[in-house]
Amino acid sequence: MPIFDSFKYFWDGDWLDAIPQKLGCAAKPTIIEREPFAIPQRAERAHGIHKVPRRVRRHTTAVSTDEPAARKTSGKRSPSLAGSGASLPREKVPTSKGKPVKLGTLRKKDGSAVMTGKTVNPDGVVAGRILKHFLRTHRSCRSQGFRSRGQSCWKNAALQGLLHVPIVYHFLGNIHRDCDQSIRRCVTCALQDLFQRYWRLGGGKGETKVISHADLDAAILKNIPKTPINDKGDLHDLVGWHNDVQDDAWLYIDKLLDLVLGAGDERDVACLKQVFEMKRKSTWTCVDCGEAHDSSSDSEDECGFSLTVPLNMPRGDREWMTFMDRLHENVFTDEGVQARCMSDACKAARKAVIMSGKNEEELPLQTKHYTITQAPEVLIVLQKRFAMSEGDDGLPKLKNGRAIVEKLKEETWYEEYLNLGRYTEDEKDLLYRLDAVVAHRGDRVSSGHYIATVREANGVDFAIINDSVVQGEQNSNVVKYPQSNGDQFEPYVMFYSKM
């Protein structure tokens, strides 16, 4: 059975009963099940339950919720079982990555740090379920700010967008339960820990706190190359991250999800794609013979983690275009396609064109229409506000050998609620709710300033977050074109949750 079929039951009411039958097993599996860590009997006899020796306790320093400097452990001693002081047996077991490691090197087991017992994965989630709302304990929490460290506004705003999507909280709580790396080396663990701290430490009404994402920063830098060419010989543009150079907030989101994807096992990867990735298939009708064409399920188009909506689209005879117009014409319609119909009539027509000495490319172009075959739980929409400046010859303008990128400041009013039902096969309602917006002020993607507008955990109010400053209890109008310190920001990245 394809793994995607098994994951669709996590969102259905009958998932507990349906999954065992589909998988042919008696137990009721969930996406977080792991093999039990059995300790041999002779190991139990040799390592009876007793107090932790003083010399071991001295190296078991409590983990700070913010500052990475507090994580000091002995690199020479084996981590001990919580509360027992006994060394873990050195037998090899599979981790969530599928690689055999020694039990003594396991840093996280079932969502908690082995040495300290600290909860790393977001807690309170339902095993095997990705819910669409925050926990009841979160609904009284206020949004929090991030410490401003150098040029970090682009990362702060991007993370605020992810943190305020409840589906992402439940997704991270269910995956990657075991790990053999430290938080400052594993991007997934660091992101899970950030979610857990953010909502666990959330202030009550009228109270906000400021936290740090230093562990996540360190983990990301450990997993990206320090030179312009990586180990595979591919070029990349992430070198500036090592030098605290401001960059694109969307690039940060995309790379973060890509690193989580690359570290997951087969089940985690399938779940992540179902949460974030849209799939679609194309249909088109031949303009010559009228024959309808439908792409097969094997040729589904994967849209990646976002839908891109350009702002400089031609309006034609219209004076303005709505946000849904832009989605329709750029995401779900493709005009001027050189698709070729294989009907007998069209084959004969093409043969006649070629025999007459004309080029086959002179045949009429087709228009494709796309239908959603997999609707993501989290829909990320990117407004393409940055484009290369072109000269009169149509080529990009250059400055110091690099293409000049200009910002498009055109106003676009977008909806708080999207209904994409018209693009599904059954045309039933497919509703999405806006949860967060990353906005930018400035002329270049790698300069200026970023802020975030987020829906509070109560699901009603909005807040504007400018690094460590939180302006709470705002109405929904602030998400359109948010303002902070008297400056207006243009919306750039939008996070929608499926209702």
Automatic annotation (TrEMBL):
Xref: Pfam families: UCH
InterPro entries according to UniProt: Papain-like_cys_pep_sf, Peptidase_C19, Peptidase_C19_UCH, USP, USP_CS
Region (Disordered) residue spans: 53-103
Domain USP per the UniProt entry, residue ranges: 144-499
This protein's GO CC annotations: cytosol; nucleus
Protein name stated in the entry: Cysteine proteinase
Organism classification: Eukaryota, Fungi, Dikarya, Ascomycota, Pezizomycotina
BP term (GO), one: protein deubiquitination
Cleavable signal peptide: none
GO MF annotation list: cysteine-type deubiquitinase activity
Domain of life the protein comes from: Eukaryota
Source species: Sphaerulina musiva (strain SO2202)
